[in-house]
Amino acid sequence: MNWFRRKGLFLASVGLEFDHPVTGEKMRFDIEPPAKIRKYLEEKERDPGHLEET
């Protein structure tokens, strides 16, 4: 499967960190990657060469 020739963007922001503008407290928010990216990462972890361009 060629992951980079499929429809849609292959980009996701899964974390955001900043200093609160009033308190200066470090704020951090994280989410899980979208299913398409999780699946790609899982397959790459199982077989790193499998997803390379040929």
Structural summary, described in words:
The protein is an alpha+beta fold. The chain has one domain. The chain contains one helix and two strands, in the order ββα. The protein has one helix spanning 35-46, and strands at residues 15-19, 26-30. The chain has a two-stranded antiparallel sheet with strand order 1-2. A hairpin with a 6-residue loop joins β1 (15-19) and β2 (26-30). The longest helix is centred in the C-terminal third of the chain and has 12 residues, at 35-46. The radius of gyration is 16 Å and the shape is elongated. The relative contact order is 0.20.
Strand order of the largest sheet: 1-2
Secondary-structure-derived class: alpha+beta
State the helicity in percent bands: 10-25%
> Could you say how many structural domains there are in total?
1
How confident overall, as mean pLDDT? 84
Shape: elongated
* H and E order: EEH
Question: Ranges with pLDDT <50 over ≥5 residues?
Answer: none
Beta strands, count: 2
Distance between the termini: 11 Å
Radius of gyration: 16 Å
Strand content: 15-25%
Number of H/I helices: 1
What is the structure about, briefly put?
This protein is α+β, with helices and mostly antiparallel strands. Helices cover 22% and strands 19% of the residues.
Topology:
Blueprint: E1 15-19, E2 26-30, H1 35-46
Antiparallel strand pairs: 1-2
